[in-house]
Write the structure tokens for this entry.
Amino acid sequence: MLIASWMNHSLLLTRARIATCAGPDDGDPTTRLGLVDDGAILVRDGRVTWVGPRAEAPSGADEIIDLEGRAVLPGLVDPHTHLLFAGSRIEEMARRRAGVDYQTIAAEGGGIASTMRATRAAGAEELLTRGARRLRALRRHGVTCVEVKSGYGGDVASELRLLVLAQRLDALGIARVSPTLLGAHALPAEYEGRREAFVDAVVDEMIPAAVGFASAADVYCDEGAFTLAETRRILRAAQGAGLDVRAHVGQFADLGGPELLAELGALSADHLEQASTRGLQAMGRAGVRAVLLPGAWRTLGQAPPEAERLRRAGVRMAVGTDLNPGTSPTSDLPLCAALAVRDAGLTLEEALLAITREAAKAIGRADAGRIEAGLPADLAVYDEEDPRALAYALGDVLAHGVWLGGKRVVERGASARIW
Ligand SMILES: [Zn+2]
């Protein structure tokens, strides 16, 4: 991403309650959160050069901003979105609430297929405008790094177009974007009855075409989507092409996805509502992160994966918005963290780590999710004095200020602590 670095300019953010999210990796969640009660952060040339207690802060900064005790976190990381789409699914939700089941709607060409049609029909500039709006909506909550999946293209050219748009979104400098190829999202209508031909196209054409445009590949591995054998074939091919891998697994049925992702050394396993204990243990041993998606389990009325089972299996947890038109129309990442606390049983500290440090790990970004000397100065400042307010409040948490690569990109006027 091209962000002007503020050469020869230094900025000291002071009188801040900082959650660096950069504590020792073997510590408990509170230790990993790395709280500095009365802290300061020195930024130079777009990077953090020092963070610690205010009393020990280096002097001589060109600019000093007094944060008056506000909470500062690393810019939040959303590890799972489908934000490049056109069309609306409002009517579909209205019908489902009126009792029409999802299978009937899907048989009529609704569901993912309807978003695929609308997205294919939309012009590139329209998709870019919509995507940029959604990225700004995420940023209002303090998000500075976003995983963006393709998946509403369905053919090589349309999927590649979405990945190119994801790169263009990144270049806009709203937030950092990590593009993921989700070629195997739903079987496109023209491949009805020809599943193998479609998987061939993903492996032989989409994956090679995506190299250089995507950093990872994803598969929707579930009942009604792609089988475990198809998922294995696609993700192996992606690894062969040098991409990281992850998958949507166990949302409706446990097909053995967690075990496969552990075997492949995937970055993350996403959803996991139906995951078995054996699968979670395999993930824990392999260091595969869980990405929990409360917007989806809430919309679908499903029981969430339990944090206690994940903890016992040694699985680190991340939380994403799953921003998509069908099952999770939200850009409010702190709200998702707050729902993960209520529904799945994460502690407040685990929830903060789940949308910063662990989310960055889940998308393979070593440069995000922590406030640490040497890393880009991506910072989110909130009016609350306790950082845990993010996972405590049910929505409403907007950033007071956001810095991206040392540049202030969100600035709200006079505001006050609510919680
Ligand atoms: Zn998803």
The longest strand covers residues 63-74. Confidence is low (pLDDT under 50) at residues 1-5. The chain has two domains: 10-74+369-411, 77-362. The pocket of zinc ion is lined by residues 80, 82, 248, 322 (CB under 6 Å).
